[in-house]
Specification:
18-stranded parallel β-sheet; 497 residues; 2 domains; elongated; Immunoglobulin-like; 42% strand
Length: 497
Amino acid sequence: MKNSIIIISVLAAIVALVACQREDFSTNPDLKLQFSTDTVSFDTVFTTIGATTHILKVYNRNDKPLKISRIHLENGANSFFKINVDGTGAANQQFADVEILAHDSIFIFLTVKIDPANQNNPILIDDKVIFSYNNNTQSVVLEAIGQDVELLRNFVVARDTTFSADKPYLIYDTLYIEQNATLTIPAGVRMYFHKSAAIVAAGSIHALGTREKPILMRGDRLDNINFSDVPLPYNFVSGQWGGIFILGEATENIFKNVFINSSEVGIFIYNENIDAEQMPYLQIENCKLTNFTFYGLFVFNANVTALNTEISNTGTYTLFLNGGTHTFVHSTIANFYGANQPSTREKETVAALINDTEKITINGQEIQISRSVTNFYNSVIMGSMETELEVITKEPEIYIGRFENNFIRRKEVYNYDNYLNNSWYGESDKVFANSDFKWTKDEKITCDFRLDSVSPARNIADITFVNLYNLQFDIYGNPRTADGKPDAGAYEWQEAQ
């Protein structure tokens, strides 16, 4: 009995103590809450798809606990936004008597999902999270851009089809182009690909952008990850989607003014027919292909022409050519993969590998490839390795391909007759204006392969190739022949304004 009385007395004391503490919430109207931000901004949100979760932290930096009598969204249950307070949700988006101890904090988790607006232009969605306590009202602004999209799931192009630039396309799974069909992608089209989504073409692709209205192909993650304590956009992280796979014979594929980035591969061409008449053809002009887990451009028995184009930053070979005739003019092939993202480049790889062995082994199977006849004119082949160009051929001294007026990084230079007027990288060379490429807290940097004012790639190009391929303007539209001394690569150096 005595023990029971003691236990009851202790419990009563604890209850009384807790009651006293709970009654000790300050009613002082001068005390204020503080927030991790005054505005929570979501990147563009595709309608019906929703966005990732944002976190708002609410601080009570006062010496007394506070009880927030009400937390709610200004637009209530009709809001496009949803809130969750410290792990608890509410159907009406309202929370009552939320306690924050002195010098403590709570988390508000925020999401947004926007209904289709049946319009082409983006729309601004906003709301407020309102905090009411002690006859005070404080608020945090919520904002998001909603964009209607054309949603394609396992979409098949069975006949000649032309996309529209009115709304972006959001692709899930595979966009498949059947044999003898052509998909035309006009200027200004934006294509967002979900994880692992890809274009697979047995037919042809005509992606016809302009400098004023380029075509965009990228992943659908519009938010950031935390990398080295700074927000890194997912758009700078490789592997966000599958890539473009060209598998048909005798197809004609044209990419002009197209920006492709952050997938597993950029453009992957595979064809086992070594008949030159049956090889697929790829023309790339004024394009930028960058940031891939594996290859930027992989070619297996295909003919390629690349003009004014950058192919850069890959986990393995940036350019891998196996069979066919390939011509690169005023192109920049550069690999500094891993400098600005949480991944590393495979060792023993080069930026440009040309395989002229006539046979290659894939998954234990020996497959025949045609001869590789590859020509590089007025281009840059550069990267973070000591050697960034490798030509594998039985007799390099009589290799048919030609390399003229290029800037190349290679530890041991090629001294064959088909290498003419090339400049070779030296350890003290400052090739690009941005030579760090690090994504840092203080200065967010993307890989920019425009030349430095003292770059050894400046003024070394042959104007004959400029005129032969009608490349009087660089990838950005800057004049290449104003001084009569064009630069190598896709970018003509411009004096700072």
